[in-house]
């Protein structure tokens, strides 16, 4: 059996001087005198390793100490790899940002959130443009709504000096959830297609005047809904 010559944080074998310990393994746990646990470790050719010294009684494992240290190092490395390095990316707007610039910055914000980064969007009010702070708030709220599939709002728009900030964090990893608006639009499209199919089967030569949708039940309502949502 190996002795702990490297000054590691775990006590092993004769370094464990309590009266009894709890041995844990694949078959559960057992409380026994420390001397008996040391004899078991010696018989099995392994070490008695104390893994939880503050428990009552302390928790130990019967395992080769070198193997145990390797497992601990490997587990720590895996946990570190799972930790995503999260950065805060800034998106800057003016109070009267045009549509092209808005869409360009929206695209970058989506990429930032998909990469696991936070987004800090702000509107900078220069000089007398502070009079348009309500317009800046509307812009940031639109921005948050357009990103609802990719991130969640940490802080609603708030004015700090000459800047109005909006903070967003990425949603959990995985497929982005569809917004309610998108689900409604897809459902309306599916309803329209199904209604068109049924109409075609029942009246394949429908009058040209007014079109197929004008003659089917609720067709105009569906078209109106699709048009309204596409404009949104």
Explain what this protein looks like in three dimensions.
- This protein is of the alpha/beta class.
- 43% of the residues lie in helices and 23% in strands.
- The strands form two sheets. Strands 2-1-4-3 form a four-stranded mixed sheet. The chain has a four-stranded mixed sheet with strand order 5-6-8-7, covered by helices on one side.
List keywords for this structure.
single chain; 232 residues; alpha/beta; 4-stranded mixed sheet; 43% helix; elongated
Distance between the termini: 72 Å
**Low-confidence spans:** 1-6, 174-178, 206-217
Overall pLDDT metric: 79
Strand proportion: 15-25%
Order of helices and strands: EEHEEHEHEHEEHHH
Report the total helices: 7
Return Rg in Å: 32 Å
Describe the global form. Answer: elongated
Structural class: alpha/beta
Kindly state the percentage of residues in helix.
40-55%
Strand order, sheet with most strands: 2-1-4-3
Count all strands and give the number. 8
Give a quick account of the main beta sheet: strands, pairing sense, barrel closure.
4 strands, mixed
């Amino acid at each position: 059996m190996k002795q702990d010559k490297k000054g590691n944080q775990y006590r092993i074998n004769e370094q464990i001087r309590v009266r009894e310990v709890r041995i844990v393994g694949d078959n559960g746990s057992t409380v026994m005198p420390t001397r008996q646990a040391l004899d078991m470790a010696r018989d099995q050719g392994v070490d008695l390793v104390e893994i939880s010294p503050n428990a009552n009684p302390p928790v130990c494992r019967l395992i080769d100490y070198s193997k145990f240290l390797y497992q601990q190092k490997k587990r720590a490395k895996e946990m570190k790899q799972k930790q995503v390095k999260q950065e805060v990316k800034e998106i800057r707007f003016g109070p009267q940002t045009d549509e092209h610039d808005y869409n360009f910055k929206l695209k970058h914000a989506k990429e930032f959130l998909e990469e696991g980064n936070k987004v800090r969007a702000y509107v900078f009010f220069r000089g007398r443009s502070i009079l348009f702070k309500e317009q800046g708030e509307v812009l940031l709220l639109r921005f948050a709504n357009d990103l609802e599939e990719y991130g969640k709002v940490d802080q609603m728009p708030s004015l700090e000096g000459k800047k109005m900030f909006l903070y967003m964090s990425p949603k959990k990893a995985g497929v982005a959830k569809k917004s309610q608006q998108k689900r409604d639009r897809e459902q309306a499209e599916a309803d329209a297609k199904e209604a068109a199919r049924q109409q075609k089967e029942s009246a394949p030569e429908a009058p040209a005047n007014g079109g197929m949708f004008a003659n089917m039940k609720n067709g105009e309502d569906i078209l109106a809904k699709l048009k309204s949502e596409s404009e949104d």
